[in-house]
What does this fold into?
Amino acid sequence: MTTHTITDSPIGELTLVADGGKLTGMYFPHHWYAPDRAAFGPRSDAGFEEVTEQLAEYFVGGRKSFDLALEPRGVAFQSLVWGLIGEIPYGQTVTYGDLAREVGGGAKPKDVGAVVGRNPLSVIVPCHRVVGKDGRLTGYAGGLARKRFLLDLEERAARLF
It folds into this structure.
């Protein structure tokens, strides 16, 4: 059964969606490509304790990666790109072109960018670590201010480790 909860964070309210004990989505208010809220199921705080705890640790700089049961839903190309994003080290960035080269098969940066923008697990699958050519900040489903906040958070925390 799909359920959701809403939790506060330093980057605003986050809607967490799970199905069968696996996190399927995390969305900002006005998220670019969020599904219809009717697909989130009823609101329930039960079952979201681990993700909210790990997010809290991340936002204070104490967690570099997440250890959660995830089930982002997408086609094979999307899953491939989201998997590569999940491998980007904490506090580092890659470009859309870097990801396209890693995907291979003639994938173009704009193709990768379209998939990155539809990442249903923002922050947890760290699409904020994907930047434009020459390190420029480009689109982020939660807005560039949130992307900058997350990158700055990781940069500061990485210096402490």
